[in-house]
Specification:
By secondary structure, the protein is α/β, with parallel strands linked by helices. Helices cover about 35% and strands about 20% of the residues. The structure holds the ligand NC(=O)c1ncn([C@@H]2O[C@H](COP(=O)(O)O)[C@@H](O)[C@H]2O)c1NC=O.
Length: about 500
């Protein structure tokens, strides 16, 4: 009796060649409606599954292969006497190879106007059932869920033993269970979202390997990058690397940080990042002017930095960029001339990102040892409606512009965070300090003389008036901060004493 292979696929790519190889290897091929039609049209002889089950495909395809004559053939142990006698009694023959890919549920729910009915109809039931049966019985059955595996299986079947190896069968079975687990997680997350359930009793997250990395944060740490298939489409995971060395773990983190900052700006802007903190942010009428400001903001720290720009990089900007040692440049596009200039540097990584992406991650996650924290992304930007003027003096118009810039940047600086800036560039950034006045001193020292007439932004309220005092002494003219301290009045009095304008946003932007 011929060995049997059951092929039932939604995505038909590569299936014809695979079926032809199986035919050559003398397999009988069983198939469901659409797969059968496709293969027969291309000259492959097929036995219909319903010829075996003597039961038609019903309910618009909801029931095709869910039958003991199929699942008995998939689940029977080939060397178990009891199984073999039950098979014979019930007229069941073994199926040695199963090749199934599933209804495109993920692709269906990714369509913007998908209906619930359409989504439900794209939940595959018979396919995962066959995959799971075959994968459980991988001691005897070869199961394939990914067309990438067709060639490897054919190679083994062509070998001397004419069978796949136990290691291959186990590898393919593990892949199946990963695949069906991910498939179920898309379905459960979709239904959970429809019901608006926020914190279900379990969280099933699915990621796909983007790339193994040479190492992690340090060379002795192994690492890889996984992407969220239904996640943000304006992200480092959706970047296209057009030039340069392979991205590293730290590059990915830094590039992500740079992107989150650049997203705050509609006007031409440039952001330089080091160790996940901005070291310079500039805006201007052109992208070259914006980059120039970001460079001037801190021409020391930018060395070895990661740059994100929100306009196409032109030749003028490329010429400026190429004068500095940079790790990465991210932009919506690079002009041809810019590419010619920048690609002269072999190692620099050039990334394009679709800045018109509209999908956002619904949750941010971070691991702690033994667990996972989830929270909404911090999507609050500067909003005039939040602003309350706390001091006698109101900010002047140009100070207000600077306050907006400072507020948009300080949100992305590790807490405790202080930013000194004017209306189109940062002048000093104090990041990750254990006390607020310490962050202020770092930022003010870096700004130096440039602090005179500039503004200060603070990611959280001032617990006492010492930061206002330090700001005043350096010549700061306006401050933006959330407010909300029991001792706000002391800071307000201090600002009034020095004629500083201070505004409260009511929103805190801690970043750990
Ligand atoms: N209902 C069943 O018994 C069943 N058996 C196989 N399928 C799926 O039907 C698809 C192939 O269908 P066709 O060969 O008719 O194009 C495959 O994605 C397969 O996973 C089924 N469909 C859905 O549940």
């Amino acid at each position: 009796m011929k060995k049997r292979a059951l092929l039932s696929v939604s995505d038909k790519s590569g299936i014809l060649e695979f079926a032809q190889e199986l035919e050559k290897l003398d397999y009988e091929i069983l198939s469901t409606g659409g797969t059968k039609r496709f293969l027969e049209e291309n000259g492959v002889a097929i036995t219909a599954v319903d010829e075996i089950t003597k039961f038609p495909e019903i309910l618009g395809g909801r029931v095709k292969t869910l039958h003991p004559l199929i699942h008995g053939g998939l689940l029977a142990k080939h060397d178990d006497a009891q199984h073999q006698s039950e098979m014979a009694e019930n007229g069941i023959s073994p199926i040695e190879i199963v090749c199934v890919n599933l209804y495109p549920f993920k692709e269906t729910i990714s369509k913007p106007d998908v209906s619930v009915d359409d989504a439900i109809e794209n939940i595959d039931i018979g396919g995962p059932t066959m995959l799971r049966s075959a994968a459980k019985n991988h001691a005897y059955v070869t199961v394939i869920v990914d067309s990438e595996d067709y060639a490897a299986v054919v190679n083994e079947l062509r070998g001397d033993t004419k069978v796949t190896t136990p290691v291959t069968r186990r590898r393919l079975a593990a892949k199946v269970f990963r695949h069906t687990a991910a498939y179920d997680s898309y379905i459960s997350n979709y239904l959970t979202d429809l019901n608006g359930e926020e914190y279900p009793e379990g969280l099933t997250l699915t990621y796909e390997l983007q790339q193994p990395l040479r190492y992690g944060e340090n060379p002795h740490q192994k690492a890889a990058f996984y992407r969220s298939p239904l996640g943000s489409d304006f992200s480092i995971a959706s970047a296209d690397q057009v030039h340069g060395k392979e991205m590293s773990y730290n590059n990915i983190q830094d590039a992500n940080a740079a992107l989150q900052i650049i997203k705050e700006f509609k006007i031409p802007a440039a952001v330089a990042v080091k160790h996940m903190n901005p070291c310079g942010v500039g805006t201007g009428n052109t992208i070259a002017a914006a980059f120039n400001k970001a460079y001037e903001a801190d021409s020391t720290s930018i060395f070895g930095g990661i740059i994100a720009l929100n306009r196409e990089v032109d030749a003028e900007t490329a010429a400026q960029l190429s004068g500095i040692f940079l790790e990465i440049i991210i932009a919506p596009a690079f002009s041809q001339e810019a590419m010619e200039i920048l690609t002269q540097k072999k190692n620099i990584r050039l990334l394009t990102i679709p800045f018109d992406g509209t999908k956002q991650d619904k949750w941010n996650t971070v691991t702690v040892e033994g667990g996972l924290l989830v929270q909404q992304p911090d999507n609050f930007g500067y909003d005039d409606a939040d602003i309350q003027i706390a001091t006698a003096r109101k900010p002047a118009e140009h100070e207000m512009e600077a306050l907006k810039l400072g507020w948009n940047v300080v949100k992305h600086v590790k807490s405790n965070a202080i930013v000194i800036c004017d209306a189109d560039m940062t002048l000093g950034i104090g990041a990750g300090q254990m006390n607020r006045v310490g962050a202020a001193k770092i930022a003010l020292e870096q700004a130096g003389e440039r602090a005179k007439g500039a503004i200060m932004a603070s990611d959280a309220f001032f617990p006492m008036s010492d930061t206002v005092e330090a700001a005043a002494k350096a010549g700061i003219k306006a401050i933006i901060q959330p407010g909300g301290s029991k001792r706000d009045q002391e800071s307000i009095d201090k600002a009034d004493e020095y004629g500083i304008a201070m505004v409260f946003t009511g929103i805190r932007h801690f970043k750990h």
